[in-house]
Amino acid sequence: MDDLLERLRAGLPAEALISDPDVMVSYGRDMASFCDAGLPAVVALPRTVEQVQHVMRTATALRVPVVPQGARTGLSGAANASEGCIVLSLIKMDRILEISQVDRIAVVEPGVINAVLSRAVHEHGLHYPPDPSSWETCTIGGNIGTASGGLCCVKYGVTAEYVLGLDVVLADGRLLTTGRRTAKGVAGYDLTRLFVGSEGSLGIIVKAVLALKPKPPTQLVLAAEFNSTSAACDAVCAIMERGHTPSMLELMDGTTVRAVNAMANMGLPETTEALLLAAFDTPEPAADLAAVGELCRAAGATEVVPADTAAESELLLQARRISLNALETIKTATMIDDVCVPRSQLGAMLDGTAAIAQKYGLTIGVCAHAGDGNTHPVVCFDHADPDESRRARESFDEIMALGLALGGTITGEHGVGVLKKEWLARELGPVGVELQQGIKRTFDPLNILNPGKVF
Amino acid sequence: MDDLLERLRAGLPAEALISDPDVMVSYGRDMASFCDAGLPAVVALPRTVEQVQHVMRTATALRVPVVPQGARTGLSGAANASEGCIVLSLIKMDRILEISQVDRIAVVEPGVINAVLSRAVHEHGLHYPPDPSSWETCTIGGNIGTASGGLCCVKYGVTAEYVLGLDVVLADGRLLTTGRRTAKGVAGYDLTRLFVGSEGSLGIIVKAVLALKPKPPTQLVLAAEFNSTSAACDAVCAIMERGHTPSMLELMDGTTVRAVNAMANMGLPETTEALLLAAFDTPEPAADLAAVGELCRAAGATEVVPADTAAESELLLQARRISLNALETIKTATMIDDVCVPRSQLGAMLDGTAAIAQKYGLTIGVCAHAGDGNTHPVVCFDHADPDESRRARESFDEIMALGLALGGTITGEHGVGVLKKEWLARELGPVGVELQQGIKRTFDPLNILNPGKVF
């Protein structure tokens, strides 16, 4: 360990290395509070590609595991330190290197905060759509590593669709440039996409070329209340079936609505069983909202309220964004699931989740990126109560089993990390796991990159 | 070889196997006429997944190379038979298995023709955007294998963005299911994307889950004439810089325009040096065309003619679609390049291509997916003239070198095949090639899947 520090110091300035255990503990984990984490041997905060290469060469020479980190806002433990590892935090590499209006790209370092990039490109009339709820604090490198989603995906897709090219420091310290800065390109296998969502297990992303869109008009939001989640899901299906492309289509169940009101006094309808938020950023959003409002009424909405102004819309968005935090106040702890099903199965997924909550005697609030079929059932429990904790874990698993049975996936956007490792194997099957492990070995033969994560 | 046929017959009906050399020769090659091809030992035309598995198990047992084929409309020799191989043609597996309006997906076998799928989903109010020029004959399996593009990409992106999940028969005959039928999903590495553009070198695609879009309004096209390609490229940059999203933005140079007129008497402007075609499929395309027309005039357009009707628009589209064929009539042979550059470099790319044509004393007509920066310089030459053939090959290479120097890629949408193998290594660099070869070994340790292609 002294050898490790000494070697790292040969290529990094003193301020880029932290070895004080009291400080290091704050780099121990992401936001998946129930996943194991160890104490790192050292935290490295490089500012240059060469420094990252030095860290990886050192790690390879000494066979020390490396855990890459962004802002640690992840929800699956992928960024949790393992005992004795090097935590490689990329947050100091936070420069926006280029924004091009004609090419509609941005070139960034991995530590750039999502919201910082979003605002910077807005000034050039451009738009970087991926908007995870943590967008004010999470980093682009973390977004790429976890293939994060957000509220915009129903219209604009996920992070993966915006990553054109990457510079990656490999396990042995070599630098790989992959992908392109062109709109199209098919030269060889798509290594770029392989890194997206790889949770730091294949290499360290040190630069990214991102695709941008023209900045759309400000979106206008409509809120529709329903007496049941299944009526709300019927509305979701009708909206998509009729060919609408909302810029957002979110669902909050009654538990979530009441939790948000309790926390932030947002004045949401206290007695509703499901609140659907639909938004359009088209040239004439009011007309689109009117059409969607009709479909909601036809599906049984008890109240349909289109926001008149951007400010009202922003308030509804804010209510949705704080949903997970609000649900966390119900009990002392939560487990946040992330099951995505074909949207035609959304109603069955929500009904099934309610049945699981009842079976285990637990409160499970659900908010969902409904237009994508991506649900976040939040299991609320008292972590000091062993029996309730056990029931929480069992219900959490049963929700994933339900998702798979409905033709879905165990993770729509939060990733695998350590939280869902066993479930990944269930989803992929033995052939898939074998090939994925083969890819891992190709990139990281010594298994020093975030070992124990994903697989 | 007798053993090969005998073993294949054990798992495939007689009509699914062709071993008559006179018939087999027609399965020898795709449309890249200058790439080498051998005579297969046998052509297999399976109708079921089990039959494909039987072919691959047999190939593995006997160590016989397998060359998968769709409609052989490819332009890089990726589907060319190698001597003594099994040609595995997927054209008989041509069923559309499912179309879902709510989930906006189609599930298809690989032999479905692109146009057949496009028309089928239109009947459900849906749209499958990828539209290579060969869309009336090419197959979805071939589109996925080559990651094909088309005219729609500037707005709708490439084939890769529409492939959600795949069933793949591996080299050893095992079946892999990868990806999903949900809108989102991040469970493990993105193997699905790895198969897209892998040119049959990693596995045999036997089923695909494709994402669909709502059917857009019929597009309206505008034609703008310019005195120089660089003025037309200025217009392209201005259109993209101002935040427009045309559904098509195509460029034909003067040589191409005159070749199209000569072949099909289309009445295009005979003296123009560059014809730009811009289209919008927005709710009010006329307004968008007017704005874009203004930008064209500001960039120096000598004439701006918006089509008044869908029929006029279709005629202009048709002119663009037959461009490659028209250029083939200029001399006895052509080499079609496929360099994609950042669109800000499009003008430099076209000027540089003209200089290369002059240097080598050749006619090089260019049509381009201008909005994507994706150029197709077509080198016209007499293949009976050895010196002209040599100059053609040298200019073809020099065009790729120019593309790389301008920050581009050697292939925007046609792929590597055998045509651009050496150039792939130049673009990827040694580290990239090493990792790509590692992936190849993981999927195909015996190197029986389309050996000699890509790498």
Automatic annotation (TrEMBL), chains A, B:
Pfam families hit by this protein: FAD-oxidase_C (PF02913), FAD_binding_4 (PF01565)
Gene3D superfamilies xref list: 3.30.465.10, 3.30.70.2740, Vanillyl-alcohol Oxidase, Chain A, domain 4 (1.10.45.10)
Keywords on record: FAD, Flavoprotein, Oxidoreductase
InterPro entries: FAD-bd_oxidored_4_C (IPR004113), FAD-bd_PCMH (IPR016166), FAD-bd_PCMH-like_sf (IPR036318), FAD-bd_PCMH_sub2 (IPR016169), FAD-linked_Oxase-like_C (IPR016164), FAD-linked_OxidoTrans_Type4 (IPR051914), Oxid_FAD_bind_N (IPR006094), Vanillyl_alc_oxidase_C-sub2 (IPR016171)
Stored SUPFAM superfamilies: FAD-binding/transporter-associated domain-like (SSF56176), FAD-linked oxidases, C-terminal domain (SSF55103)
UniProt cross-references to PROSITE patterns, sorted A to Z: FAD_PCMH
Cofactor: FAD
FAD-binding PCMH-type domain mapped to chain residues: 36-215
Protein name: FAD-binding protein
Organism ancestry: Bacteria, Bacillati, Actinomycetota, Actinomycetes, Kitasatosporales
